[in-house]
């Protein structure tokens, strides 16, 4: 491969996708590519796509439209579409003028080779197989090797210094009726703990201080080896022993019966396990939860939160909701509002229902809630949460919090207490509170103590504590 070749990577979607982007970036770097921020200068453009919402796919289509113009100036440019949308749409994406390579998430170990082939023959290339059903499948093995080879690198894809994502499982077995993930990422498969630990140790050697263990339903992590079973709680204990790692997070948790107390006890007993739980509820209406194929009621969900708070009293909890699921009435929505008021989330994410072709909800139900109602419910639910978040934020006034510094703040937030000297930095507490303060950019990736002097619903402002 010619060393002068450049690649531009654009990534959409969730943390799983960001992690894939980071692996692909490492593989491309090893193959001799240099990275560029400019599409105009790129010999190769890789777009890592997301299919979770219609809007995410629309953004990719619009991006492909922009690339058509870039292609006029760079006729030899190779465009590779990877990720969930590549898996879902396969050949039809290849029919798009500007696309040369289509590669599903299960085939990313082949990506460099596909790009090389596209360069050599000027022909279109595709690697999209059925999602891997069998852990013994050779593609599954290739994915594991790819992850092991590049999972400790990926500086290009790693947005934040001192932090890294580590996948502990792939896929999902839950088949929530609105969700495309089980179709494009396949069934749940847990990675061996030895491989995960090896990766974490290598990350720690590189200076990583916080790892986030990733899985679609991470609390159901279980790896069986003969008579022995390693659970998420066991894994947290093992990762906590890795020297250099100071904070461990895990996302996303599914609020099932299977939310074992041992995970909460691991959190309560280890100072390294962050006291933070991201546990989507999706709705507060039992009728809608049934239609979504979520296996709990609102009361069971709230009981789980109460249990978490009994075991870990200062735990911070975040939720996700979908508004406007087919058939959601005003009463159903009110039940969701009630749940948000009772849940005392630190933060919650609200999405408007968007039908995904191929999912059960799309096959069975018409997308019948008008967009203006979805929009209104979205705004209303966020306002309810904002009032809760504001109350919780005010409780931090005057306190000193430990923060892992991410880097310069992207938003031009004005710190009312210290507008001079150093630029604004942003970081997060172990409980995922965003903290803005003034300090030297060299603090990125390090832990500091910040005294909180001002608050807004989602941000704490402060000054570096002595
Ligand atoms: S738990 Fe449900 S929403 Fe989450 S990835 Fe699995 S099917 Fe999708």
What features would you describe in this structure?
By secondary structure, this protein is an alpha/beta fold. The chain folds into 3 domains: 6-127, Methylthiotransferase, N-terminal domain (Rossmann fold), CATH 3.40.50.12160; 138-393, tm_1862 like domain (pyruvate-formate lyase- activating enzyme); 400-464, Nucleic acid-binding proteins (OB fold (Dihydrolipoamide Acetyltransferase, E2P)), CATH 2.40.50.140. 36% of the residues lie in helices and 22% in strands. The chain is built from 15 helices and 21 strands. The protein has helices at residues 15-30, 54-73, 84-89, 91-94, 111-121, 138-150, 181-185, 193-205, 232-240, 261-269, 286-291, 298-311, 330-343, 360-364, 371-394, and strands at residues 6-11, 34-35, 44-49, 78-83, 101-103, 125-127, 163-167, 169-170, 189-190, 210-214, 222-225, 228-231, 247-251, 276-278, 316-323, 347-352, 400-408, 424-428, 434-438, 447-455, 459-464. The strands form 6 sheets. Strands 2-1-3-4-5-6 form a 6-stranded parallel sheet, sandwiched between helices. The chain has a 5-stranded mixed β-barrel with strand order 17-18-19-21-20. Helix 13 (330-343) runs parallel beside helix 15 (371-394). The longest helix is centred in the last third of the chain and has 24 residues, at 371-394. The radius of gyration is 23 Å and the shape is globular. It binds iron/sulfur cluster (SF4). The site of iron/sulfur cluster has 10 residues, from helix 7.
